[in-house]
User: Fold this.
Amino acid sequence: VDRALSSSEQYHGRLCAMSEEVPPSADRQKLREWVEALVLSTREEVARKDQLEGQLRESAHEIRNLREALESTRAEALTDPLTGLANRRHFEEMLQKAIDQATLRREPFALVMADIDFFKHFNDMHGHLTGDQVLRLVARTMKDKFKDKAVITRFGGEEFAIILPEADVVAGKFGAETVRQALLTRELVKRSTNESLGRITISLGVSVYRRGDTASSIVERADNALLQAKRDGRNRIVTEDAVQDAAKVA
Assistant:
C-alpha cells in the first residue's frame, strides 16, 4: 500500500507537470509525443494498480488462513483432547461469563458437578485405556442429554462440570438425573476382549447462582453437594439445598 501511494503521488506529479507543458495544437509532432508519454505513464500506473490488487487479494487470503489457524489453535487450547469437552480453562472463562450475565440480567443458572463412582478402582483393575473409554462414554452421554447451550467440561480427572444457563435448582437436578439414568442403561464393553465390564454410575451435586456469587463460591456449593452424594452412597444427586437442610438437622 505504501508503494502504491508513492507511485500514485509520482503519477500525480507527472500529470501536473505535463499539464503545464501541453504543446500548442499546431505542433502536431510534439503534441503526438506528449499524448504518447501521457498514455505510457497511465498504462504504467494501471499496471501497478493491477499488481497491487493481486497482492491485496493474496494478503486477504493469507489473513483468512491465519484467522482460521488462530481459531483452531484457540479451540485446541480450550478443549480436553481425550473427551472433546471443554477443559478447565474454558470452564473458568464460561463460568465467569455466566456470572456476569446473571448479575446483569438477573437470570439464574445452575452448576452441576459430577464424579464417576469408584473410578480409581476401576482404572487400577482394568487399565488406563479402559479408564479412558469410561471417560469418553460419560462425556458422550452428557453431550447427548444436555441441551446445546450447556457448557460441559472435563473439570479434572474423573470429575465433570456443567453450566446450565437459565436453569433453577429444579431444572439443574432434572438435567443431572437425565444423565445419571442414561448411564445406567449403557453397558461398558472392553474393546480388546469384548468383555462386559458392567455399568458406570456417577454422583452429582447441584448449585444455583445467587446474587453476589463468585466463581469459587458457586463451585464450592456444588462440590459440597457432590461430596454429600458420595457420603450418602453414590449414584445419586444432591442439591445445595439438601446439604443446608442436613446441616440444620445436625
In short: The two ends are 75 Å apart (CA to CA). Residues 28-77 form the longest helix (50 residues). The longest strand covers residues 109-116. The mean pLDDT is 87.
